[in-house]
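Backbone-to-sequence.
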């Protein structure tokens, strides 16, 4: 009696289960195998629960007889649960194998076994899972999918969204993309689908539904029109905020355009030494001042002495970075001054950048006010 109670505790099969006995043997590959024979306590009637929907239903027949479910190993011993698998006649699903408390419907593993596999899939390598649990990698994928479906059935990930971030990520080789949506309030990835276009973003809002879409208050994204246009037309109560990383990235690109122009001018004028110095100055111009090496700082000082336009372009890039470091009203005021400076600089790359920033000014101001950008999205999908 004590042994049966111990097995009941180890297998966590619930109070309705009776342990009938235990058989030991040798498996196909010479390993130790334990089969625990169980049965469910009989009800007064032949009714049981449908394995698909859990609905209480009248009994149908004995089904295909006894079945086995792989349970968690006991040390290095393979362990199985064996029980009858009768069928019930569900009003919705028709004749269906009755629900058992230790396993999901139409699955050859116990819930504990599948939960363990799913946890390992997150925290360990493919090789470790397959060797430790003694199952194929394809089986791991099927288990993870089932547990994910169960989790989604218990809680809708799209419920309660108020502040979201939308971005794309490339995968595999070539131009294959996923559009992903992250909840800023919980830090969770809540939706993803193949594609990088308006149709993909519309698919998300269609799934979200009109009433939940109207509850969204903020959407962070980059400057992509295929995101912004859909957000503005569907999320009518949301403010669109633009990520600082992309704006500063524009300034870095504009700075590199200036550097290449100056380099080409020096090369054409036969100033070989100057051209060589400018070609090697790329990282000194790109890096943040606090991260410069001694050599890069010296190179930047040389540029300040010898090349006024390029150094002004560098200062424009750095002041734009300062805008986002300040944030709030101070950041907005500094951005006003930056735009005036860019216009006066007569550096074509930064004049064009100023026009781009003006086009996206509302979203950039929202970033400065709320402090919400796409950093969470980037860190979640990397």
């Amino acid at each position: 009696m004590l042994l049966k109670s111990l097995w009941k505790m180890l297998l966590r099969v619930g109070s309705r289960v009776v342990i009938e006995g235990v058989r030991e043997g040798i498996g196909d590959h010479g390993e130790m195998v334990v089969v625990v024979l169980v049965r469910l306590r009989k009800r007064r009637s032949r009714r049981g629960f449908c394995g698909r929907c859990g609905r209480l239903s009248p009994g149908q027949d004995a089904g295909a007889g006894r079945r086995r479910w792989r349970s968690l190993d006991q040390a290095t011993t393979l362990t199985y649960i064996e029980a009858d698998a009768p069928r019930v006649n569900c009003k919705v699903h028709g004749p269906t194998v009755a629900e058992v408390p230790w396993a999901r419907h139409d699955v050859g593993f116990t819930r504990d076994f599948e939960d363990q596999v799913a946890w390992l899939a997150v925290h360990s390598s493919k090789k470790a899972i397959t060797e430790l649990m003694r199952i194929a990698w394809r089986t791991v994928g099927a288990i993870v999918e089932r547990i994910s479906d169960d989790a989604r059935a218990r809680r809708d990930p799209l419920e309660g969204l108020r502040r979201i971030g939308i971005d794309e990520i490339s995968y595999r080789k070539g131009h294959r993309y996923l559009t992903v949506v992250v909840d800023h309030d919980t830090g969770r990835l809540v939706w993803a689908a193949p594609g990088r276009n308006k149709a993909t973003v519309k698919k998300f809002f269609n799934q979200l539904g009109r009433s939940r879409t109207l509850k969204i208050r903020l959407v962070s994204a980059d400057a992509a029109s295929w995101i912004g246009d859909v957000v503005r037309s569907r999320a009518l109560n949301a403010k669109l905020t633009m990520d600082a990383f992309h704006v500063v990235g524009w300034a870095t690109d504009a700075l590199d355009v200036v550097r290449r122009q100056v380099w080409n001018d020096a090369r054409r004028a036969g100033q070989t030494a100057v051209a060589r110095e400018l070609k090697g100055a790329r990282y000194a111009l790109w890096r943040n001042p606090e991260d410069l090496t001694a050599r890069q700082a010296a190179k930047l000082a040389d540029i300040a002495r010898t090349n006024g336009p390029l150094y002004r372009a560098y200062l424009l890039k750095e002041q734009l970075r300062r805008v986002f470091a300040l944030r709030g009203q101070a950041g907005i005021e500094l951005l006003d001054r930056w735009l005036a400076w860019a216009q006066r600089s007569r550096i074509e790359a930064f004049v064009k950048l100023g026009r781009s920033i003006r086009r996206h000014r509302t979203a950039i101001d929202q970033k400065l006010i709320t402090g919400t950008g796409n950093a969470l999205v980037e860190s979640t999908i990397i």
